[in-house]
Structures are given as structure tokens and as C-alpha cells.
């Protein structure tokens, strides 16, 4: 039975007539849902509070406000204040019912009859909570039932506080007008699945759904043990999905010859004949083939079959999905031709800010989000993904040419536009009032048709406080002038706008960085992601690699895709015996146990080693430092090894190490190794990070123990990149005091010699 002609809205409109047919709806497989459209009511948490009965086949999602993006408490202040978070519903789900467990507190000074907290979904009131005196000043919990018909694909949950402290004239910004919403408040969504059609036009659904805020976990199934070309195709797919998942994080597992019991999966088939995997029959491919089918053991699951008669065709089909999925239509297609792509240029990753031209803020953020209203609106946050090797030594900072407009007040003292980077204050520009500007005809000529005043400013943003993922914050703050008793009224006529033509210019910076640095490897995938398609990178798999190593490889490439926003279509996979063929590339080396010969060949370069039950680790003063290890002065970051520890024990050590490639100077090697295959999953989980990880990967050697990451060595041994001649001379002299003294002496001698010759020539001229 096919239900796809029914839309999400059609399902909702059928709820009320079907209330008396609830039992019949359950028999239809759970997708025609039990009606529930009662008026929302807020009730205290108690055993008597019973949620609407969920249909058969349904399941629930539990999301806290913190998981929805609210990292701190909502502080609502004033006569009327509001804050909001967004939540989305997957394309293959429909909501049966929703509840909000609200944890909050409010001021004891509020008048119970006039104060309330309103819960709104998509600007429709779902509930209004009274604020009685007996609960004031203490943590409160209430469950709010949200009508399902208010919820669409993209939703905004808004919490509005309305407060009053007196029946007489009041100050709308009085300190007693407050309410706080804890970010542990939880939204529960009971949903039922909706069958999706087997059509490639829905890609990347259902494997990735941008409405889903959770991390992406997806298995890759190989019909048989893959060769290197097949793994390169799988890497293109995992990096494509990693780029889509972005901040959510993406991890991948792999298995051979067996489908997962349920859920979605990507199946890679290299065969000239028909293949059978469990209950799935795959016909013999006629060329590079891409097919979308239902999971034979799970009606909710989908399988994306990428097939070819050989590994070259398999890789071609995978590249077609990673680069051209938007153009694919139908249940199954055969890729006739895929034009060779133009080679990528350094630092041209779609996610990274261009470093060869000024970038408009309108390119980085929807222009609609560059305008705000109100006396104290939130910050305008512009996401910045910076190339990690920007050389900022003795630089003024990145030039921000800021153009903005605002509504000038009649009178104000402290109105300003604040510029910050990652919550670090950079500069404040005053927003003059009509009175301070003098008024008159000259001011009227400056005002725009919307009565806003255009202004310009230049801000220098130092890169020392910038990370791979940074936020440029622009905040308009308008001064609230009190008029006196019974005259204080907040009028919502204050507007601020940042012109999308404002530019950020990185073009004056050199690309030069000290390596190894596992911090930039983890955050940006550097130096592998210097070219977005990884055309100058190679992955060296261990001898006899299996699903554990393949899963780690796919997850790491997913991280690279998250950094660049582009699939790794040109990565090369080799074995240790063929490493000389990729000597001119940056190398990612995977190892588990004693299956990677390169670790023995390069043991003098590695800051760590595991051989059988013997373990060796180099240590520096890094672990003894109390202060943050990163310093604006690169020389201060050097933590050279001071001792080496060796011990015998079980094969449980997992570590990441970086060093200069023994095959070619200026090239890098990053090793991800563990004493056991399953330990590689711990390393990739540490790369993705999360709330469970207090520390991140840093230095040239990091040891992973469960959710604990310890950086042991930060030894800057080599530099990659280029400096212009003047900057290079400055840098070399700053790093070597003897050269500095020698150049100073030679400079003085040269000046003295020139001065002597000049004076001598002048004397001879005078005497003659």
C-alpha cells in the first residue's frame, strides 16, 4: 500500500475526523495517527499527568534546549522579553504529539494576576503559564502539551515572558522583572515514520536530513573485501556526507557481506554478476550504477547501492553521487560519463574564507539575518571558517570594512555597535543621537528614506583569537533613556542593519605554519585539506586491514569533508609497500596492533611506538604547564621532548602522532594507531569530540584513553608554506639572536662606510 501522495499537511487535517476511529487508525500500520488537537494546557509534573497515547509503531525523540543550540540559560528581563530555539522534523517522520518539560524560575516581586510565561510554536500560542506567588524565586517544572498541528518541518519554539510588579506606573526595565529558562528543559516529540519513495531525487535523504540536529551514524556495506579504488570511492561518499552533516558530526562503520538488521546503509558492490546480500538481490551491473531501494528487513530503512563491474566503475559511480546527486532522478541510473574535474587550487575549499580577495558579509550570511530590531537585540553572528595557516605574526589584523545603518534616537548617551570575535571584544562604534548630530537640514540629507543613518567604520580583527571555526559578532545596543514616572514606555522603533556589502579582507596574509600540530589537524584537517579534493593526500592502510580500519578511514574523511565542504574525490589509498609512489603527498597512516610496517621503519621519527606488549612514549613539559599551551609567539609553543617512557603492558594504547614525512621535506605524516582494531574508533570519536571530552587533541602526540585526551609533546620541528621576502627575513632574524646581532653589526658598518665615503668626497670637493 502506497501513501506517498498524502502530504504532511493532509495527514494533520485528517486528525479531527478520525478521533472516533483511533483503533482503526492503529490497524493501518501507525502512519495514520491518533488525533490529538486539544487546547494546550500547562500542568505541574505529577503522576496524574498522562501524555496522549502514542500510535503503534511510533517512537520518541528527547531534545534539551542545549541540544537545540541554547548553550546557556535564557534570561528574560523587562516588561516583555522573549527568546527562542529552532527544532525540525525529519522528512520521513510526522509528529503525533509533543510535550515540553519546562524548567524555569521567576522573580518574587511579580504580580501573579498580570505576569505569565507564554509558550509559542511558530508564533502560535501553545500554553500560557501563570506565575503564582508561592512558587516565586524557586526552581519550577511544568509539562506543556503542544498540539501536533502547530508543528511543521521547520519550527521555532519561542518562550515569552510578560511581567509586572505594580498596578501603578512602572519602570519597564525594572530589576525585579525577570524570569529564567533553564537549558535543561526538554522537548519530547512522539513521531511515526512516513515511507519515502525509492527515487534518487530525494538524495541525500534519508541518509542525511538537514532537519535532524543529531549526529550522523551510517554503516557502509561492502559486498566483498574492497580494494584501494573501492575504498577511494567510499571515501568520496563519506566526505560528502561529512560535509553535509557539518557541526552535527558524522561517524561511519563498515562491514563485509552482511546488511545491518535495520536502518539505512550505503552498499558498495564490485561484481560482474548478480550478488545477494541477505534478503537483497542485486542484479549484475551494466556499468557504474546507482540504485535506491528499501531495506528488505526494515520498511523504514533505505539502501543506496553503488555498483560497478570493477573498482574503477565503482569509484566513478561514487564520485557521481558525491558531486552530482542533485541531478539524479529515478530508482536506478547508469552513469555513462563523468567529465574530468578541473584540479582544485590551494585554499579554495567552499567552507573556507577566500584568502585572495575581500569577502562580502552577504556571502557568509543570509542578508535577512543582518538586520535587528529593539533596544537590546541579540548579536548578529557571522560564521568564519579561516584557513588554519594564516601567518599573523606582527600583523595589524584582518581588515573589516563595516557599513551599517541605524535609527538615530532623539537623545542618547551610550548607544553603540559592538564588534567581537568569539565573544572577545574588538571595537565599539558610537551611534550618535539626533541631538549630538546637531539636527537641521544637514542631518535630513544624510537620513535614508527609512529614516536610518548610514555609517562606515574600519575594524582590525587580530587572528590570534580566531580558531578554525570562529564567529564574528556584531551587536547593536541602543540606550534606553528614562523619561520619569508614568512616562517610561518602550517603543519598538529601533532598527539596526549591517550592509551585506561590508567586506572582510584576508588577502594580505601569508600562508605559513609550524607543524606538527594535531590541533589544526583535528579542527581543519590541515595540511591534508589544503586542497579540498585531497589531491595531494594519501591514506596508508595497514597490511590485512579490515572493517575497523576502513571505518576509521571513512570517519576521518568525513571530518575532512566537514572542514572543506567538498568531497574527497582525489584521495589516494595505498598499502605500506607502495608508499614510495606517494612520497610527494601528505600521508595519513592507520595502524592497529603490529600490522603497519611503516611504524617500524620510521621509529626514529615517531614520538610514540607500540610493538607487541612494549610501549614507548616521548614526553615534554606540556603536561606540566598550568596555562593554556597556545601562545601568540610561536617560539613559546615549543615543548621539546625531555624524556621517553617505555613499559610493558596489554595492547590498549591509542594515540595520534604527527611528524615531518621521511620521504620528502615539507610534507606531513599523521599516524592514528592503536594496539587493537577497536581502539581506532576511540581515536576518531576523540576527533569528533563532544561534551564528554574535556580536552582536545594538541601538540605532536596525543594519547586517547576512553573519553580522556592527553597531549604529551608539542615539538614544532618544521614549517610549511611561504613568506614574502621581507617577512621571511624578519622572521628568520627574530628566531636567531646571533643572526640579528650579525646583521645589526654589518648594517652599522655599511652605514658608517657610506657616511665615510660621502664625507670624504665632500671634503675633497671643498678642498679642490
Automatic annotation (TrEMBL):
Membrane topology, as annotated: Single-pass membrane protein
GO cellular component: plasma membrane
TM region(s), chain numbering: 737-759
Designated name of the protein: Cyclic di-GMP-binding protein
Family statement drawn from the similarity comment of this UniProt entry: Belongs to the AcsB/BcsB family.
Biological-process GO terms, alphabetical: cellulose biosynthetic process; UDP-alpha-D-glucose metabolic process
Keywords: c-di-GMP, Cell inner membrane, Cell membrane, Cellulose biosynthesis, Membrane, Signal, Transmembrane, Transmembrane helix
Protein role: Binds the cellulose synthase activator, bis-(3'-5') cyclic diguanylic acid (c-di-GMP).
Family annotation (InterPro entries): Cell_synth_B, Cell_synthase_bac
A Pfam family per the record: BcsB
Subcellular location: Cell inner membrane
Subunit and interaction comment: Tightly associated with the cellulose synthase catalytic subunit.
Species per Swiss-Prot/TrEMBL record: Pseudomonas batumici
Signal peptide: 1-37
Pathway annotation from the record: Glycan metabolism; bacterial cellulose biosynthesis
